[in-house]
């Protein structure tokens, strides 16, 4: 029962991962209410790690339009990452569709991510060294 309770509410550590570890907009830090009902808001740390690894691998290795899936059999969470061409004028970047699933929850969005050292990040999160 304890493991179910851990996965059925928003955990504050997830915001740190989203803002600091994953390439999602830091503006989310101001309002996290939407995460409570989102698929990713119910992910375990293991789910987030699998999603992050799949995202980085897909951006580094997948062809434009190729979908790369991940699944955590232990929690039932899953997702799909589909990288595509960079928008015009944004060399070193790729557009990516991120889809996430947990129980009956699902969510998807598109982002533009740019290479910064050995990681892909939102352009605003690039370090001065990576520009």
Q: Can you lay out the helices and strands and say which pair or pack?
A:
Blueprint: H1 2-7, H2 12-21, H3 45-61, E1 68-71, E2 78-84, E3 93-102, E4 105-116, E5 119-121
Region (Disordered): 70-89
Organism: Oryzomicrobium terrae
Protein name: Surface antigen domain-containing protein
Please, could you describe this protein's structure?
The protein has 131 residues and is of the alpha+beta class. The protein has one domain (2-125). The protein has helices at 2-7, 12-21, 45-61, and strands at 68-71, 78-84, 93-102, 105-116, 119-121. It has a five-stranded antiparallel beta sheet, with helices on one face. A hairpin with a 2-residue loop joins strand 4 (105-116) and strand 5. The chain is elongated and about 40 Å long. 24% of the residues are buried. The model is unreliable at 1-31 and 126-131 (pLDDT under 50).
Structure keywords:
131 residues, alpha+beta, five-stranded antiparallel sheet, 3 helices, elongated, disordered N terminus, disordered C terminus, Surface antigen domain-containing protein
């Amino acid at each position: 029962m304890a493991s179910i309770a851990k996965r059925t509410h928003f955990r504050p550590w997830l915001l740190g991962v989203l803002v600091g570890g994953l390439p999602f907009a830091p503006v989310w830090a101001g309002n996290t209410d939407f995460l409570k009902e989102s698929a990713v808001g119910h992910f375990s740390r293991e789910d987030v790690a699998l999603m992050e690894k799949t995202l980085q691998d897909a951006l580094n290795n997948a062809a434009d339009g190729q979908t790369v899936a991940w699944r955590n059999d232990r929690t039932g969470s899953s997702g799909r990452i589909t990288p595509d061409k960079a928008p015009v004028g944004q060399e070193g970047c790729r557009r990516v569709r991120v889809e996430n699933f947990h129980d009956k929850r699902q969510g998807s969005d598109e982002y533009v991510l740019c290479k910064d050292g050995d990681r892909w990040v939102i352009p605003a999160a690039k370090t001065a060294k990576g520009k």
